[in-house]
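TA notes. Do not distribute before section.
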Amino acid sequence: MFSSPNLQTFSSSSAGPSQDWIPTSGAAIISVSVSVLTSLAGILRFGVPSPAMDDVVTGAMTTLLAKLGDLLASEYQLQAGVRGDVAFLRAELESMEAALLRIAEAPVDRPPGAQDRLWARELRELTYDAEDCVEAFLVRLGHRHHAPPPSNGLQAGLRGFVHRGLSLLRRAKARRDMGAEVRDIKRRVVEVSERRVRYKVDGVAAKPDVPTVDSLQLPALYPKAAELVGTGERSDELVRMLMEGDEASSRQLKVVSVAGFGGLGKTTLAKLVYEKLKGHFDCAAFVTASLNPNMEKVLRNMLCQLGNGCDSNDATCGGEARIIDKLREFLQNKRYLIVLDDIWSSSVWDTVKYALIENGRGSRIITTTRILDVAKQASGIVYQLKPLSLAYSRKLFYHRTFGMEDKCPPNQLAEVSENILKKCGGVPLAVITIASLLASKRRKENAEKYWYQVYQSMGSGVEESTVVKDMRRILSISYYALPPHLKTCLLYLTLYPTEDYGIMREQVICRWVCEGFIQKKHGKTLYEVGEEYFEDLISKSMIQPQLYNHGNTPISVQSTIRRLSLQNINAEDSKQLATMNLSHLRSLTVSPEAFTYLLPALSCFPVIRVLDLHGCSQVDDNHCKQICNLFHLRYLRLSGTSITEIPNEIGNLQLLQFLDLYMTKIKQLPSTFVQLSHLEYLSLDNQTRLPECLGNLKSLQKLSPHITIRSPTMLHDLGRLSELRRLFVRFDECDESYDEPFVQCLSNLVNLESMQIFDCHNGLGSSIGILTPGPQKLRSINIGPGTINRVPRWMSSLSALSALDITLLALQEVDLQILGSVPSLRNLYVWVKEHRKDRHERLVIGSDYPFRCLARFRIGRGAMEVEFAPGAMPKLQTLHLDFHVRHTMDQFGNFDFSLENLPSLERVIVHINCYYAELGEVQEAEASIKKALDLNPNKPRLELEKHGDSWRSG
């Protein structure tokens, strides 16, 4: 067995058929922030058995079926026999996919049996091999060799004739090879199908040898006192959320949801609060829903606990509707406390809520759930449970291991204790379980060795005691409850190292797309669907903003490796790596440290789809030439490498979707670059010049960091990128000749969602009022730091525009008219570069400028040039003013902005520039603002900050 901690793969951990997914890093949750995914933890950390996790993921089935459909298209001119075989494969695999999904969606307490898992594993491997075969054929037929143009017409004719002849021969050979491989795959499909029938035992439902979900909850319902470390503060906080409030709110029904991932102690906390409070209510009940609840039984149990006198096992109480009627009747005049524990779907709450009437007696309800969306649906108040701090984890660990929470471990165990606690990640269930495991070994001579072995094995199963098995089952329930597509995406995250390693959320989703994990949805891009998957994993508490270490799972040298991550390997590791079969590799991620020992040539990965060499400074132009022959590549990350030139062969990568060339020394892209018709994401350095005919990149959705516009012709070319979602442009030079091309470009970018324009010194087509058809999805615009003379009229036609940050040379009445008519504008920042000394009356914002949705408004920086009339900005909640006291006084003679006329105002932030102002002027400005806010009926909060000192007293 190969057990280097530096090789992270998704391969088999045992001999025999390969497994696609073996998580080599693990913990209780995967760590993410708003934009950065930083580590992998949770369900994987404590060694959820890998066969049960990975055997029933669907492999390449979905993408294979789509490719088989493509293959049947008439353009490929398959021979009749091959067409029949392909049609057979497609029909057979569709039926197998349905069976595979049924296995993957098996209930948590009745996982698929060994025979089903073996069949699913074999089928998954078959789909990968079949997809490799089909895609290789499609690439061979679709690939075009781009020769340099000949020097004369005779050469052109001769070369064209030879090229067409060779192409026909290649296509004929490709079809023959394809026919042979399809027949081989058909034979394997038939064998897999017959084997399942041959060994399937029908009509016998094996009783699961695992405890039920309900029984696993019992320790949380009846914890020992020593296991309540850290719950005191939490329970007090939850009690306050439930019980505090004014007299009116205390009489209303209040629902608080406790949300967090498995093992955090939600049930324990809810039970503790329930015991504290139930004496203050007329009746109380604590009921558990669990993963697949019998709602009739749940409601009957609730009715019984509340004191209705019924038997919880009495089926004569009636169905759900009848029991709900009884509950409503019983609770009509009672103040009740109910805990609904372990909800997994909003449908459970949707049923129970009909029984929990609002009777004005101050009843309280607590729900617990692992799924944030369910918590939000059940309650407007969500208490998100966090992991224990390291200090509390240490107390709990020491108490369970040594019998007292302030007991320090012996010196030889101190370091490994801290490492174990970090790996437990603040999960109380994990701390208690591991501590219990170690307690019996603390006095033995080899205690240090044993503890270290436990630490090392925490990602691969620890010790096979009953309590450890139960802990792993509790942590794995969340995983097993995921739909198959989310299981695949979650397991993929084990590819990344977790300690001190940041991964951009965007890159994760792009890799999911390029790996083929994302299923198409009507009206949405694959990336947008991937964002939904990511949000689903957050909502289901599978990924969280925490940083954890990871464990390691050994891999088999003999297994077929399809996804590989190399981190910090050494010479010995590289020798073992050299014995592996990497010809089936689909994904490769290499750290800079590991590249020194990197494998054979990159060309040895014929079917690779994802290649991430970020930061590997050893990668140079020679490597780039090899990469350009990896025809199956979808995702290529070469940022931070030493590449200085992209070869013409880049055009070979016809399937490429994601390309990152940021932080390289590439001066210009070759003309063949525009042949990448499937490219969706492109990241370049600012100095890299784009080729002509950029508009041929029809699939491009994001180009970062920005495009430098050097001519009106570039704007015309840019306008052909109709799939573009984000646009960031700078202008090398700018005059009136750019206006019309810019507006025409913008009109064609119908999918644009955000736009930034810098270094622009013209009007941007300000006089043009309508964009046809225009970017009706455009939500945010930033125009600056270069300035324009006026707000473009076409902005008022942007129906989705909600955020605008704009720098103007001067503010005029017409600018306010245009801004006020933007229908969905919620956030507006206006920076005025020059104050007009000839203006002595402020611009009045009143009901003539609708600003229907505006909630936040910031204006600055010279003199304060606006005031608010009655009816102005009716929904404005936050106002941010930046102004110069001296300029404002010189120009207008006062600080009367009429803030009292803003009816919804809640918060006012004022930054006053006091340079060259008299002390009395500064005091007058403060007093005027405070007086206006005192007169405002909404009594908004003032936050005032002064910059610079007044230079003389008033």
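Switch to the second chain here.
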Amino acid sequence: MSNVDSFGAKGVLDVNGKEYEIFRLNAVEGIDRLPYSLKVLLENLLRTEDGANITADHINALANWDASAEPSVEIQFTPARVIMQDFTGVPCIVDLATMREAVKDLGGDPTRVNPLAPAEMVIDHSVQIDVFGNSGALERNMEIEYERNGERYQFLRWGQTAFDDFKVVPPGTGIVHQVNIEYLARTVMTREVNGKLRAYPDTCVGTDSHTTMVNGLGVLGWGVGGIEAEAAMLGQPVSMLIPRVVGFKLTGSIPAGATATDVVLTITEMLRKHGVVGKFVEFYGEGVAEVPLANRATIGNMSPEFGSTAAMFPIDDVTIDYLRLTGRSDENLALVEAYAKEQGLWHDSSRELDFSEKLELDLSTVVPSIAGPKRPQDRIELTDAKEQFRKDIHNYTGSDEDTAAMGRPSKQIPVSMADGRQFELDHGAVSIASITSCTNTSNPSVMLAAALLARNAVKAGLKTKPWVKTSIAPGSKVVTDYYEKSGLTPFLEELGFYIVGYGCATCIGNSGPLETEISEAVQANDLSVTAVLSGNRNFEGRINPDVKMNYLASPPLVIAYALAGSMDFDFENDALGKNEAGEDIFLKDIWPNPTEVQQVIDSSIDKAMFTKGYEGVFEGDDRWKSLNTPAGNTFEWDEKSTYVRKPPYFEGMKAQPDPVQDISGARVLLKLGDSVTTDHISPAGSFKSDTPAGKYLLENGVDRKDFNSYGSRRGNHEVMIRGTFANIRIKNELLDGVEGGFTRDFTQEGAPQAYVYDAAQNYQAAGTPLVVLAGLEYGTGSSRDWAAKGTALLGVKAVIARSYERIHRSNLIGMGVLPLQFPEGESAETLGLTGTETFAVSGVTELNNGTTPKTVKVTAVAEDGSEKSFDAVVRIDTPGEADYYRNGGILQYVLRQISAA
């Protein structure tokens, strides 16, 4: 904690007779012009100044921030807390448990490995939609979830008892980011320090990229890799450059036909186009007061989709009203308001702040939209959706000719279901319609709009098409309460939209299988069917292995597409069906009136729902309480477990790291194109029996039906290494036209095609280091620690890409993998690299002198002996990252610090 106060900032704030120790921002001159988000960082530095890692120079650099300059000053940010979900959180706790043993082996005290900041986990990623479309779906899916994940849950319950300041929100409660804004977020934190109650801004890092949802509540936070989150839990600050801040001015208000989702898709497209990777976005202007908190959270949530680190809204009356509605105490409300006003953190739209760049959106210009078929930023206006689908379908149907009658490729395949349903499936059929994910299921305006649209559709006599897998996975139980109170549940259920679970579900790839007959028809005829979901991610191969095209849409549009049954549909001109009088019914006839939506919100949501919903939230239900939980400071690993295994990171680790070395004789494991996501590198969804991961589980006595998903197996490195680069849609350019987790194995005669894992094992046996070649935006998407861990454990020593997404680059360093960048304007193509060469990287050893080289020399020797060399940019961006790399990774660095203390 802080032991220096160069600016005399420490003072007292009296709120209704209660005293709090605070660090006053006005102790530093000239900071009124700073954006709100940078003031939060400034307070963080004032409070943690120690004269060594955090100095008066750092504070002055932030106070004198030059909005127009490129980021160059590194600061250390100490988040107030860490938030996790179970997919990314389980490996964190596995690693902490392993670190306890490693500290013991190095002669230290294992109980010193403990979260030093509050760490909270919400189990929300494990529920799959195995059962849908009936009233028993929720209960049965939860039963299956516990059957599949019992081992992981026992382990997490052990963690809850073994580690101080670590709490778990059990399954079936809600989605992590919604639980965060409704319950866990403090907005202003309090903690006793040296006998005094200290107040400071709530800040957090999370092991899920959509942690930024909490930005809507005025809380600065963002997603980090699980590797960085572990370090933050153990008291390591997050190393960052003082960022550029993009001011985003909001004016006007949303028009009648549009929703918060449409606003978000519009902002996502605008900011992706503008370029905000590595920057903060901050919303300002008169329009901010017009944006309800749920809409702010929806916008904040999509920050990873437009690429910014954070997407902040300042604290104002709207924030306080939401905190009150969600059951926060009067004492907390009074503190948040008094603290924000005292510190100049309260929104004042009349004050013009300094921003690096500015954009503006008049909300009244927003139109109904969807995004797809494979990226969140590819927005399509709803009026153009049919036409755009007809253009895009050609990329997914191979050589299928256009059918003159249809005006697009068409294959009408008859399907007979066991229950007597009969229909024809064609390209473009909507096979999944799911109201899911954190982005929208926290937002009453779109959730109730969906329910009212369902009511209007039922009253008009419309029905969902029989091939659509329908589902609702709300963000919290409060959604169910207001659906019940408003009397709208029966209409949703009438259309097949039953609640299937409280969790991410379809958005994370837990859509569950399509019905057998539909799945077989799709596979046998290579049909390009579609999914429509109210989520934030629609990357290739993510949603369901049978579904090639995925579209993001608002919850009411998800229902509309379930009624339409096909993406080849124009809502303006194509009728959804006929009413009893035989009249055509169009979308505009059943679209809910925004005034009615607001009336239903006002009459069916109250504070009592939140206080009741979160009572005893950490205790869990009988299923959770009855789990058999191990005890003790260190975990007893079960050698037979296929879910939780002790990882090999610290085996043979010495008290001092070996010097770093240059790379020679390296082979290319994969040569990849642009926009390769962490989903491509480390998929979260299901996998088949003939994959390396499937074979491993079969060999270990696991039945096919119990495979579960990659995401749920993240506590087992054996599964995850085999799943690295195993996405069914990844395209390795070492092979011609082959999709999936394959490469060429140059250890074998003729370099035949092999699974990536099998080839990597052969390279390891031969002592051959590996490199990966990639294009632009390498590692976009979720903050998958396994995308970096798997890369490292396969034996990859360096990645050479044209550019990186922020989290994945730092994760690679956190695992001891060197991120290099092609020279500006160059790529594997321009340099004539085929990936068949042998690579050497020299100049890395300069890191042993305590400095980081700006470039290193890469030499590629072709099979005919010809050489090409170029200077690759070293993307170790801060001194802290250099320390991690020298130690072989961030965990090794932290472990050595703890053991030496």
